[in-house]
Design goal:
Blueprint (H helix, E strand, L loop, with lengths): L1 E7 H9 L9 H8 L4 E9 L11 H12 L5 E5 L1 E10 L10 E10 L1 H14 L5 E5 L6 H11 L3 E5 L6 H6 L2 E4 L2 H5 L6 E4 L2 E4 L5
Parallel strand pairs: 1-2, 1-6, 2-3, 6-7, 7-8
Antiparallel strand pairs: 4-5, 9-10
Helix pairs in contact: 4-5
Length: 207
């Protein structure tokens, strides 16, 4: 079946590869291992560019190197949301007896990836761009577009869950629902160095 894969980048990262040796992940190879009977028509990768942090100033550079590596995959496109940072007043877990009970904190949130994913999923479905859609995510906000694709277009939508915990809502909405195990992640790593049209991409040394 002609298959499109929609990857929630942060959901995949925090669910399956953060803190592991598998962060240099070749998504084309992963799709071939997880969907061996299907022809992957396109891969859409949804993310947002992070800002460097004082405690990890190389974080943004590592992300940019990884995105460059992903862009060497011919049928992969990257779609960007954004990060919003805003002050929020939050309650203290253990306020002092005679002190304030709340504190101002800076909250950084990734915005737009779930909406972007849902939008491209629906547009591709109505454009007959796939015979099967596969979503890599555990975000239950995607339940409604999955239901629309299945009910209105009669097309199957599978979910590959990168998290150890189950989303019952996604499981019930999807045509099939599977977990991403360690084996395919281990077997889907880019080479340490890759070339693109602008030069050489090297796996970050701390990965």
């Amino acid at each position: 079946m002609r298959t499109n894969v929609y990857v929630d980048g942060f959901n995949l990262y925090y669910g399956a590869v953060r803190g592991t040796p598998y962060r240099w992940l070749d998504l084309a190879r992963l799709c071939r291992l997880l969907l061996p009977q299907h022809t992957v028509n396109r891969i859409r990768y949804f993310t947002a560019l992070i800002q460097p942090r004082d405690d990890d100033p190389q974080q943004a550079q590592r992300q940019q190197a990884y995105i460059r590596a992903l862009q060497t995959i011919p049928n992969l496109t990257v779609h960007y949301g954004l990060f919003l940072t805003r002050p929020v007043r939050m309650p203290l877990a253990s306020p002092p007896p005679n002190g304030p009970r709340t504190v101002d904190v800076l909250r950084t949130e990734e915005k737009g990836s779930d909406v972007n994913l849902a939008t491209h999923l629906l547009v591709d479905g109505f454009d007959s761009d796939f015979e099967l859609a596969v979503i890599i995510s555990n975000d239950s906000d995607l339940v409604e577009p999955i239901k629309i694709i299945r009910a209105r277009l009669g097309l199957p939508v599978g979910v590959l869950n990168p998290h150890p915990n189950q989303s019952r809502a996604l499981r019930d909405a999807a045509t099939f629902y599977r977990y991403i195990r360690e084996g395919p992640l281990q077997g889907s790593q880019f080479p340490t160095t890759i070339s693109d049209k602008t030069g050489t991409i090297t796996k970050p040394p701390t990965w």
